[in-house]
Design brief:
Layout (H helix, E strand, L loop, with lengths): L3 H27 L18 H35 L1
């Protein structure tokens, strides 16, 4: 059963994810149809970053997953050597 703190943290993560998803959707899908002189454009980065930022985040995620798997495999190898 989740405690109150777990629920608050989960709700916070959900809220942050929803905000990021909404911002990115407006940035990538809706913004190209709005005139470039419109005031809303000052709240968004240039469109080149719409590809670069998710690419960088994805590469960092793959890096950390790879590092975690490597760490677990090396730790498992050390445990089996001690057992023998």
């Amino acid at each position: 059963m989740a405690t109150g703190t777990d629920q608050v943290v989960g709700l916070g993560l959900l809220a942050v994810s929803l905000i990021i998803f909404t911002y990115y959707t407006v940035w990538v899908i809706l913004l190209p149809f709005i005139d470039s002189e419109h005031i809303i454009h000052k709240y968004f980065l240039p469109r080149a970053y719409a590809v670069a930022i998710p690419l960088a985040v994805g590469l960092l995620l793959l890096l950390f997953v790879g590092l975690f798997i490597t760490y677990v495999m090396l730790k498992n190898r050390q445990v089996t050597k001690k057992a023998q």
